[in-house]
Amino acid sequence: MADPKTIVITGATDGLGKGLARVLAPTGAHLILHGRDREKGRALVEELRPDAMGQLEFRRADLSSLDEVRDLTDELLDEDRIDVLVNNAGIGTAEPGGGQRDESEDGYELRFAVNYLAPFLLTRTLIRVIERSAPSRIVNVSSAGQAPIDFDDVMLEDHYDGVQAYCQSKLALVMFTFDLAAELEGTGVTANCLHPATYMPTNMVRDAGVEPVTPLEDGVAATRRLVDSDEVEEINGHYFDGTRESAPHPQAEDPEARRRLRELSLELTGIQAPA
What we know:
Blueprint: E1 6-9, H1 15-24, E2 30-35, H2 38-48, E3 56-60, H3 66-76, E4 84-87, H4 110-132, E5 136-141, H5 162-184, E6 189-195, H6 203-207, H7 216-228, E7 239-241, E8 244-245, H8 255-269
Parallel strand pairs: 1-2, 1-4, 2-3, 4-5, 5-6, 6-7
Antiparallel strand pairs: 7-8
Protein backbone atom coordinates (compact mmCIF):
# COMPACT_ATOMS: atom_id res chain seq x y z
CA MET A 1 0.00 0.00 0.00
CA ALA A 2 1.32 3.43 -0.99
CA ASP A 3 2.30 5.89 1.71
CA PRO A 4 -0.24 8.69 2.25
CA LYS A 5 0.42 11.86 0.32
CA THR A 6 1.68 14.92 2.17
CA ILE A 7 -0.24 18.01 1.06
CA VAL A 8 0.66 21.52 2.18
CA ILE A 9 -2.11 24.14 1.92
CA THR A 10 -1.39 27.79 2.69
CA GLY A 11 -4.24 29.99 3.84
CA ALA A 12 -6.17 26.99 5.13
CA THR A 13 -8.12 28.57 7.98
CA ASP A 14 -10.68 30.42 5.82
CA GLY A 15 -12.48 30.33 2.52
CA LEU A 16 -11.13 28.21 -0.31
CA GLY A 17 -8.23 26.80 1.69
CA LYS A 18 -10.50 25.64 4.48
CA GLY A 19 -12.94 24.13 2.01
CA LEU A 20 -10.10 22.28 0.30
CA ALA A 21 -8.84 20.95 3.64
CA ARG A 22 -12.34 19.67 4.45
CA VAL A 23 -12.64 17.61 1.27
CA LEU A 24 -9.09 16.26 1.50
CA ALA A 25 -9.18 15.27 5.17
CA PRO A 26 -11.18 12.04 4.59
CA THR A 27 -8.79 10.89 1.81
CA GLY A 28 -6.08 9.74 4.23
CA ALA A 29 -3.63 12.44 3.14
CA HIS A 30 -1.21 13.94 5.63
CA LEU A 31 -2.39 17.55 5.64
CA ILE A 32 -0.11 20.38 6.71
CA LEU A 33 -2.37 23.39 7.07
CA HIS A 34 -0.98 26.92 7.22
CA GLY A 35 -2.56 30.05 8.59
CA ARG A 36 -1.69 33.33 10.29
CA ASP A 37 -3.88 32.85 13.37
CA ARG A 38 -2.84 30.07 15.74
CA GLU A 39 -6.24 29.83 17.45
CA LYS A 40 -8.06 29.49 14.14
CA GLY A 41 -5.53 26.85 13.16
CA ARG A 42 -6.15 24.81 16.28
CA ALA A 43 -9.91 25.15 15.79
CA LEU A 44 -9.58 23.94 12.19
CA VAL A 45 -7.63 20.84 13.19
CA GLU A 46 -10.24 19.99 15.82
CA GLU A 47 -13.05 20.53 13.33
CA LEU A 48 -11.44 18.24 10.74
CA ARG A 49 -10.26 15.55 13.14
CA PRO A 50 -13.49 13.47 13.28
CA ASP A 51 -13.46 12.96 9.49
CA ALA A 52 -9.69 12.84 8.97
CA MET A 53 -8.18 9.55 7.87
CA GLY A 54 -4.63 10.85 7.98
CA GLN A 55 -2.38 13.10 10.00
CA LEU A 56 -3.31 16.76 10.53
CA GLU A 57 -0.84 19.49 11.39
CA PHE A 58 -1.08 23.26 11.65
CA ARG A 59 1.82 25.61 10.91
CA ARG A 60 1.62 29.32 11.69
CA ALA A 61 3.30 32.07 9.68
CA ASP A 62 2.50 35.63 8.68
CA LEU A 63 3.26 35.72 4.96
CA SER A 64 3.74 39.48 5.05
CA SER A 65 7.11 38.74 6.68
CA LEU A 66 9.71 36.99 4.57
CA ASP A 67 11.51 35.97 7.76
CA GLU A 68 8.37 34.13 8.88
CA VAL A 69 8.10 32.51 5.45
CA ARG A 70 11.70 31.34 5.90
CA ASP A 71 10.86 29.95 9.34
CA LEU A 72 7.93 28.07 7.80
CA THR A 73 10.14 26.61 5.08
CA ASP A 74 12.69 25.55 7.68
CA GLU A 75 9.96 23.51 9.38
CA LEU A 76 8.70 22.03 6.13
CA LEU A 77 12.19 21.07 4.98
CA ASP A 78 12.15 18.49 7.78
CA GLU A 79 9.34 16.61 6.02
CA ASP A 80 10.28 13.36 4.29
CA ARG A 81 8.13 14.33 1.34
CA ILE A 82 5.79 16.99 -0.03
CA ASP A 83 3.57 15.54 -2.72
CA VAL A 84 1.46 18.63 -3.29
CA LEU A 85 2.03 22.28 -2.44
CA VAL A 86 -1.05 24.49 -2.75
CA ASN A 87 -0.17 28.19 -2.65
CA ASN A 88 -3.60 29.52 -1.76
CA ALA A 89 -3.05 32.22 0.89
CA GLY A 90 -3.67 35.76 -0.24
CA ILE A 91 -5.23 39.14 0.46
CA GLY A 92 -7.74 40.98 -1.68
CA THR A 93 -8.22 44.44 -3.13
CA ALA A 94 -9.49 46.22 -0.01
CA GLU A 95 -8.45 44.64 3.26
CA PRO A 96 -6.12 44.95 5.04
CA GLY A 97 -5.45 48.65 4.54
CA GLY A 98 -8.92 49.90 3.72
CA GLY A 99 -7.92 50.60 0.14
CA GLN A 100 -4.79 52.54 1.11
CA ARG A 101 -1.28 51.51 0.15
CA ASP A 102 0.34 49.39 2.82
CA GLU A 103 3.75 47.75 3.09
CA SER A 104 4.97 44.41 4.30
CA GLU A 105 7.41 43.99 7.16
CA ASP A 106 10.17 44.00 4.54
CA GLY A 107 9.03 47.31 3.02
CA TYR A 108 7.39 45.86 -0.10
CA GLU A 109 3.89 46.68 -1.37
CA LEU A 110 1.71 44.40 0.74
CA ARG A 111 -0.27 42.56 -1.93
CA PHE A 112 2.80 41.90 -4.04
CA ALA A 113 4.55 40.60 -0.91
CA VAL A 114 1.79 38.29 0.38
CA ASN A 115 0.19 37.12 -2.86
CA TYR A 116 3.39 36.66 -4.84
CA LEU A 117 6.73 37.00 -3.04
CA ALA A 118 5.72 34.69 -0.18
CA PRO A 119 4.67 31.77 -2.43
CA PHE A 120 7.70 32.43 -4.66
CA LEU A 121 10.05 32.10 -1.68
CA LEU A 122 8.15 29.16 -0.18
CA THR A 123 8.11 27.19 -3.42
CA ARG A 124 11.67 27.97 -4.43
CA THR A 125 12.97 26.90 -1.03
CA LEU A 126 10.94 23.67 -0.92
CA ILE A 127 11.52 22.65 -4.53
CA ARG A 128 14.10 19.95 -3.78
CA VAL A 129 11.77 18.21 -1.31
CA ILE A 130 8.97 18.40 -3.87
CA GLU A 131 11.24 17.02 -6.59
CA ARG A 132 12.36 14.04 -4.56
CA SER A 133 8.67 13.27 -3.87
CA ALA A 134 7.83 13.02 -7.60
CA PRO A 135 5.34 12.49 -9.04
CA SER A 136 4.28 15.65 -7.25
CA ARG A 137 2.39 18.84 -7.93
CA ILE A 138 2.49 22.58 -7.32
CA VAL A 139 -0.86 24.36 -7.49
CA ASN A 140 -0.92 28.15 -7.45
CA VAL A 141 -4.26 29.82 -6.76
CA SER A 142 -4.34 32.91 -8.94
CA SER A 143 -7.28 34.90 -10.29
CA ALA A 144 -8.94 35.96 -13.52
CA GLY A 145 -8.28 39.48 -12.24
CA GLN A 146 -4.86 40.12 -13.78
CA ALA A 147 -3.04 43.35 -14.60
CA PRO A 148 0.35 43.88 -16.24
CA ILE A 149 3.31 44.72 -14.06
CA ASP A 150 4.89 48.14 -14.55
CA PHE A 151 8.52 47.30 -13.89
CA ASP A 152 9.28 50.99 -13.34
CA ASP A 153 6.86 51.07 -10.40
CA VAL A 154 6.31 47.50 -9.21
CA MET A 155 5.63 48.65 -5.64
CA LEU A 156 3.05 51.21 -6.85
CA GLU A 157 4.72 54.11 -5.06
CA ASP A 158 3.82 56.63 -7.78
CA HIS A 159 0.16 55.70 -8.06
CA TYR A 160 -1.57 53.19 -5.81
CA ASP A 161 -4.76 51.35 -6.57
CA GLY A 162 -5.88 48.28 -4.60
CA VAL A 163 -7.31 46.55 -7.65
CA GLN A 164 -4.10 47.08 -9.63
CA ALA A 165 -2.05 45.85 -6.67
CA TYR A 166 -4.10 42.67 -6.33
CA CYS A 167 -4.32 41.98 -10.06
CA GLN A 168 -0.61 42.45 -10.76
CA SER A 169 0.26 40.16 -7.85
CA LYS A 170 -1.99 37.45 -9.27
CA LEU A 171 -0.51 37.82 -12.75
CA ALA A 172 2.96 37.56 -11.21
CA LEU A 173 1.92 34.21 -9.73
CA VAL A 174 0.88 32.98 -13.19
CA MET A 175 4.18 34.12 -14.65
CA PHE A 176 6.05 32.29 -11.90
CA THR A 177 4.01 29.15 -12.57
CA PHE A 178 4.93 29.17 -16.25
CA ASP A 179 8.62 29.68 -15.45
CA LEU A 180 8.55 26.91 -12.87
CA ALA A 181 6.78 24.48 -15.20
CA ALA A 182 9.41 24.96 -17.90
CA GLU A 183 12.19 24.45 -15.36
CA LEU A 184 10.59 21.28 -13.96
CA GLU A 185 9.73 19.65 -17.27
CA GLY A 186 10.73 15.99 -17.17
CA THR A 187 11.26 15.85 -13.39
CA GLY A 188 7.87 14.36 -12.54
CA VAL A 189 6.78 17.61 -10.88
CA THR A 190 3.99 19.65 -12.45
CA ALA A 191 3.15 23.30 -11.80
CA ASN A 192 -0.24 24.70 -12.74
CA CYS A 193 -2.36 27.66 -11.68
CA LEU A 194 -6.02 28.55 -11.71
CA HIS A 195 -8.77 31.04 -11.14
CA PRO A 196 -10.88 28.74 -8.97
CA ALA A 197 -14.24 30.52 -9.32
CA THR A 198 -15.70 34.01 -9.59
CA TYR A 199 -16.61 35.88 -6.39
CA MET A 200 -17.01 32.99 -3.98
CA PRO A 201 -18.53 33.72 -0.54
CA THR A 202 -15.19 34.36 1.17
CA ASN A 203 -13.96 37.06 3.53
CA MET A 204 -11.86 38.48 0.70
CA VAL A 205 -14.92 39.01 -1.47
CA ARG A 206 -17.05 40.36 1.37
CA ASP A 207 -14.33 42.81 2.43
CA ALA A 208 -14.32 44.19 -1.12
CA GLY A 209 -18.07 44.85 -0.86
CA VAL A 210 -18.85 42.41 -3.66
CA GLU A 211 -21.91 40.19 -3.74
CA PRO A 212 -20.88 36.51 -4.00
CA VAL A 213 -21.66 34.84 -7.32
CA THR A 214 -20.28 31.30 -7.30
CA PRO A 215 -20.63 28.67 -4.55
CA LEU A 216 -17.44 27.95 -2.64
CA GLU A 217 -17.83 24.28 -3.56
CA ASP A 218 -17.19 25.09 -7.23
CA GLY A 219 -13.84 26.68 -6.45
CA VAL A 220 -12.93 23.85 -4.09
CA ALA A 221 -13.72 21.25 -6.76
CA ALA A 222 -11.67 23.06 -9.42
CA THR A 223 -8.69 23.38 -7.09
CA ARG A 224 -8.93 19.80 -5.86
CA ARG A 225 -8.87 18.63 -9.49
CA LEU A 226 -5.35 20.02 -9.82
CA VAL A 227 -4.37 18.51 -6.46
CA ASP A 228 -5.30 14.87 -6.96
CA SER A 229 -7.18 14.14 -10.19
CA ASP A 230 -5.64 11.59 -12.55
CA GLU A 231 -7.14 13.63 -15.38
CA VAL A 232 -4.45 16.31 -15.01
CA GLU A 233 -1.61 14.07 -13.84
CA GLU A 234 0.74 15.00 -16.69
CA ILE A 235 -0.53 18.51 -17.42
CA ASN A 236 2.17 21.09 -16.71
CA GLY A 237 2.39 24.84 -17.09
CA HIS A 238 -1.28 25.57 -17.69
CA TYR A 239 -3.65 28.24 -16.43
CA PHE A 240 -7.24 27.21 -15.76
CA ASP A 241 -10.43 29.18 -15.31
CA GLY A 242 -12.24 26.74 -13.06
CA THR A 243 -11.69 23.41 -14.82
CA ARG A 244 -11.33 24.95 -18.29
CA GLU A 245 -7.93 25.70 -19.73
CA SER A 246 -7.75 29.41 -20.43
CA ALA A 247 -5.42 32.16 -21.59
CA PRO A 248 -3.98 34.51 -18.96
CA HIS A 249 -3.02 38.13 -19.53
CA PRO A 250 -0.57 38.33 -22.48
CA GLN A 251 2.28 39.51 -20.23
CA ALA A 252 2.38 35.98 -18.77
CA GLU A 253 3.54 34.73 -22.18
CA ASP A 254 6.25 37.39 -22.56
CA PRO A 255 9.69 35.80 -21.93
CA GLU A 256 11.34 39.17 -21.28
CA ALA A 257 8.72 40.18 -18.70
CA ARG A 258 9.09 36.82 -16.99
CA ARG A 259 12.87 37.21 -16.93
CA ARG A 260 12.59 40.65 -15.34
CA LEU A 261 10.12 39.38 -12.76
CA ARG A 262 12.28 36.34 -11.98
CA GLU A 263 15.41 38.44 -11.44
CA LEU A 264 13.51 40.97 -9.31
CA SER A 265 11.96 38.19 -7.21
CA LEU A 266 15.29 36.51 -6.56
CA GLU A 267 16.75 39.87 -5.51
CA LEU A 268 13.85 40.78 -3.21
CA THR A 269 13.72 37.37 -1.51
CA GLY A 270 17.48 36.97 -1.29
CA ILE A 271 17.62 33.46 -2.69
CA GLN A 272 20.01 32.07 -5.27
CA ALA A 273 19.01 31.64 -8.87
CA PRO A 274 18.12 28.04 -9.81
CA ALA A 275 20.84 26.15 -11.64
